[in-house]
Amino acid sequence: MRSAEIAAQGWQTRQGSRLTICGVSNMLSDILDCALARGYRDFLVVTNTSEVLRPRTRPFRERLTDLPPGATVEVLPLDRFPPDVAGDVFLGTSAPQRYHLWRQFRERWAVRLCTLVHPAATVSPMAKLAEGVFVGAGSVIGPCAEVHLCVFINRAASVGHDTTVGPFARVQPGAHVGGHVRVGAFATVGIGATVIEEVIIGDNAWVAAGAVVTRDVAAGHFFGAGRSVARSSTADEPELPSWVELQDVLPPPLRAVGDSWPLRE
C-alpha cells in the first residue's frame, strides 16, 4: 500500500499536528524520518533517562539539528511531561525500556499511542496493527499478519502472510520473516536475518544478524551460526513478562482501514 493508497484510506499526513516522542534511543532518526514523511513538522522530545552514549553514536540533540528548515522541536524531561499533551504520542525507546515506559504512560496518564507507518512502506489492507507500532521505509507487512503493541519494524524488512509479531518485538533492517511465523514478545530478529515459514521465535529470544532460522528458537535463547543457546542475563537486567502474562492488558491489533489505528483519538 503506497502513498496514494494511504491517503485514500485516511492515513493522511499530519500537517499542523505535534508529535511527542517519549524516550530517546538510536531509533530517534528513523522515527523523525518517518514522521517528517507523514507530514509532522512540530516535535516534542521527552527524555526519560540520562542519555548513554557509545563511542560511535551521536548525541540525540546533535541529531535534532538535522531536522529540515521549518521543523520545530522542544525537549523536556519526563517529570515535566504535560498529561494533556496535544497531538500524537509515540514511544521512542527500545525494549525493555519501551515496555516500562508504556506501563508508566498507561497507568499515570492513560495516553493512547499513535502508529507510524512510512509512506514508502507497504501494508496489506488485510493486516492488523496495534497502537505504538513503527513500520519503516521500504518494509512490507503481508496479508493477515498481526503486529502487536509497540513493535518496531525497521527499514526494508518484511513480515509474511499470516504471521504474528508479539508486543515490543523488533524486526531489524533488511530482516525477512516468512509466513505463518510467530515472533514472541520482546524478541529481536536481527539485521538481514531470515526466518523461514512456520517457525516460532520464543519470547525474549534474539536472532543474530544475517542468521537463517529453519527451526524454532526457545524463549530466552540466542540463535546464531546455526545453533541456539540460552541468553545470559545480568543482575541489573529488568525482568520482563511473557506474552501470556500481558494478554489481559494489551490493546488488540486493528485492521488498517480508515484512520482507526494510525491516528490518536
Textual characterization of the structure:
By secondary structure, this protein is an alpha/beta fold. It folds into 2 domains: 13-114, NAD(P)-binding Rossmann-like Domain (Rossmann fold), CATH 3.40.50.720; 117-231 and 243-254, 3 Solenoid (UDP N-Acetylglucosamine Acyltransferase, domain 1). Helices cover 14% and strands 25% of the residues. The protein is built from 5 helices and 24 strands. It has helices spanning 3-8, 28-37, 60-64, 97-108, 243-246, and strands at residues 18-22, 42-47, 72-77, 88-91, 116-117, 122-123, 128-129, 134-135, 140-141, 146-147, 152-153, 158-159, 164-165, 170-171, 176-177, 182-183, 188-189, 194-195, 200-201, 206-207, 212-213, 221-224, 227-230, 254-255. Residues 1-13 and 258-265 have low confidence and may be disordered.
Task: Chart the SSEs and their pairings.
Elements: H1 3-8, E1 18-22, H2 28-37, E2 42-47, H3 60-64, E3 72-77, E4 88-91, H4 97-108, E5 116-117, E6 122-123, E7 128-129, E8 134-135, E9 140-141, E10 146-147, E11 152-153, E12 158-159, E13 164-165, E14 170-171, E15 176-177, E16 182-183, E17 188-189, E18 194-195, E19 200-201, E20 206-207, E21 212-213, E22 221-224, E23 227-230, H5 243-246, E24 254-255
Parallel strand pairs: 1-2, 1-4, 2-3, 5-8, 6-9, 7-10, 8-11, 9-12, 10-13, 11-14, 12-15, 13-16, 14-17, 15-18, 16-19, 17-20, 18-21, 20-22
Antiparallel strand pairs: 7-24, 22-23
